[in-house]
Amino acid sequence: MAKVFETIDDSIRNWIADQKIFFVASAPLSGEGLVNCSPKGLDTFRILGPKKVAYLDFTGSGAETIAHLRENGRIVIMMCAFEGPPRIMRFHGSGQAHEIGSQEYEALTPLFEDLTGARSIVVVDIQRIGDSCGYAVPRYQYVEDREGLNKWAEKKGEDGIARYQQQKNRVSLDGLPAMRSRD
After folding, report:
1. Where do the H-state alpha helices sit in 5-75?
2. What is the pLDDT of residues 43-77, one digit of tens each?
3. What three-state secondary structure class fits 14?
4. Would you say 170 and 179 are in contact if contact means Cβ atoms under 8 Å apart?
5. What per-residue confidence (pLDDT) applies to 183?
6. Phi and psi for 6 in degrees, rounded to 5?
7. What is the pLDDT of residues 150-163, one digit of tens each?
8. Within 10 A of 39 (CB to CB), how many other CB atoms are there?
């Protein structure tokens, strides 16, 4: 059943390439704070090394993950097989959100498609890689990516996205500082 892996090997790398969705979870240090879990899609996940991954983070209605990473760095990424053999993989680690405009962001952008609305690239140094059976995860069939986020961002344009981030992404729901570049 469950296994722990030292690194992302070719078998895990190939399995990741087949996944169309992943989930990111983070939490503030305060026990009173809200735990956050966000689904992520599109072609936004990259393996940077045997114990390092990154994903392109888009502008959204909140910025919980960015705030939590700024406060404590804790993050877990989970992937589930909805097609093929059942499997769940979790990548626990310490992350940093490199915001749009930063040197780190600019250095990493060639790894991703240039999509309007991106606000950061989250890099995770993995401390634990584990899988579990996924026997209770239902089967779903991938049809296509949704275009809503891209259309929304393109309609807003760069200036509109910047204003939106200033209004909605500066602090988390718990009041923790989130995006710096839009201060």
Report:
1. 10-18, 64-71
2. 999 999 999 999 999 999 999 999 999 999 999 99
3. helix
4. yes
5. 56
6. -75, -40
7. 999 999 999 999 99
8. 8
Structure token pair of residue 93:
């680690």
81 domain residue, yes or no: yes
Phi, then psi, of 118 in degrees rounded to 5 = -65, 145
Question: Would residue 180 count as lying in a domain?
Answer: no
- Its domain, for residue 73, covers 3-168
* C-alpha dist (Å) from residue 79 to 49, 124, 154: 18, 15, 28
What's the Cα-to-Cα distance from 48 to each of 13, 84, 119, 132, rounded to whole Å? 11, 25, 19, 23
151 found inside a domain: yes
Distance between start and end Cα atoms, the chain: 47
**Looking at residue 138, which CATH number applies to its domain?**
2.30.110.10
**Pairing mode, strands 118-132 and 88-99:** antiparallel
Is-above-0.90 flag for pTM?
yes
Domain contains 178: no
User: Which amino acid type is present at position 165?
Assistant: Q
How many domains is the chain partitioned into structurally? 1
Supply the Cα-derived Rg of the chain in whole angstroms: 16
